[in-house]
């Protein structure tokens, strides 16, 4: 099928690339002409595992193209995937102005009927508004627009894997024909018709369970996305309160959450205590969901608490830093990890940056290392010394802070690092190490929820 993708951010690029890999003809556009230029030159503007390979093969095979002319992109596709940003406003409400602007352009530029698919995360009822907007902006013209919601469940860092191995594909539609069109778009993935790029070397994807293709109303589809992400955020905050409790009582949060997770009704994932959740999805989705609930008279207390607990993580970490270091001013502190989680270059709403900001305000001298997050951080905090090599960042440090769960940090040789640090002090915001082992090596070691 011919597909247009509007917005070449994380979601748009992954969606465009994977749909091209699945055999469709994809045209991508973005308001940022520089980004389109990069993509046309074969560069990948974001770090995402396997994305470069698929974009490359799709471009060479003529399955994907990029244009800065949104009209051209709109006219090219039978289905248009809207993948633009929906950032939070000051109030927490989702800012839908980019969606509105795209609707106006679709109405103005389309010459034939289109299936307009919301891929961006939006509050419930956005689809209905989008439908009304398309009708209003096209001022009764002959072109027919149908709207559908198809929320993404792509984790940054494993987005390509997630696209080809979904647990569910949710399509919220107004009419059965739209559901059939979307089923056709996803057929290669639903029927596992090809070996995905992640498993190409292995010959075939491991035979996992088949994805459920769920047809719902548009409102339900939109709600499913917010309800899923908010529930995962809630799970993390729950684990973090358990960690606080473990510290007070003298128990080990890793033991507790591991045992809890073995109950299949609970599950082991998203129970990792530490610095809390960040990124461009969870914090904004939780806020937008609280706001949506309030707008219809529902007080989402439990999510407000989720948010509150998450914010406290930064304060707790700073308390631990103060307790260990006493005076922060003038101390050299090595920050390991800036991205909001491992395997991404994304630093948006990263807990690490909150910690860094506070320490700089207090006059600490910071050195940092992150495999992918330093380019972005440099523009916000130029006063930090950045090192590709974490051992360089740790040289002469009075303390090491671990803020992101990158594998390189998990495998760090602390014997080696300890020899060059001014003080053998590690504050682990992600519970990556075994406390006993760190202490055996002569480190003062602080983490979350472990005695
Ligand atoms: C999320 C959703 O998982 C994905 O389905 C959705 O569509 C987009 O938003 P992402 O933002 O990439 O994906 O991050 P995710 O892997 O979910 O992690 C979110 C945050 O929670 C990270 O900061 C991570 O470090 C933190 N986290 C995660 C914890 O603190 N503890 C955990 O146990 C798990």
| Helix percentage | 40-55%
Unreliable spans are: none
Bound molecules: uridine-5'-diphosphate-xylopyranose
User: How much is the average pLDDT?
Assistant: 95
Radius of gyration: 23 Å
The number of domains is: 3
CATH topology of the largest domain: Rossmann fold
CATH class wording of the largest domain: Alpha Beta
Whole-Å distance between the termini?
A: 57 Å
Global morphology: globular
Number of strands: 14
Task: Walk me through this protein's architecture.
By secondary structure, this protein is an alpha/beta fold. The protein has 3 domains: 2-216, Rossmann fold; 225-308, N-(1-d-carboxylethyl)-l-norvaline Dehydrogenase, domain 2, CATH 1.10.1040; 313-446, NAD(P)-binding Rossmann-like Domain (Rossmann fold), CATH 3.40.50.720. 45% of the residues lie in helices and 14% in strands. It contains 18 helices and 14 strands. It has helices at residues 10-21, 33-40, 51-60, 70-76, 97-109, 126-137, 159-164, 176-190, 218-249, 253-261, 282-295, 301-325, 351-361, 374-380, 390-394, 407-410, 414-420, 435-440; strands at residues 2-6, 25-29, 64-67, 79-82, 114-118, 145-149, 168-173, 212-216, 332-336, 365-369, 385-386, 399-402, 425-428, 444-446. Strands 3-2-1-4-5-6-7-8 form an 8-stranded mixed sheet, sandwiched between helices. Helix 6 (126-137) links the parallel strand 5 (114-118) and strand 6 (145-149). Helix 9 (218-249) runs parallel beside helix 12 and helix 11 packs antiparallel against helix 12 (301-325). The radius of gyration is 23 Å and the shape is globular. The protein starts with a strand and ends in a 5-residue tail after the last strand. 48% of the residues are buried. Uridine-5'-diphosphate-xylopyranose binds at residues 152-156, 229, 232, 236, 270-272, 274, 276-279, 281-282, 340-341.
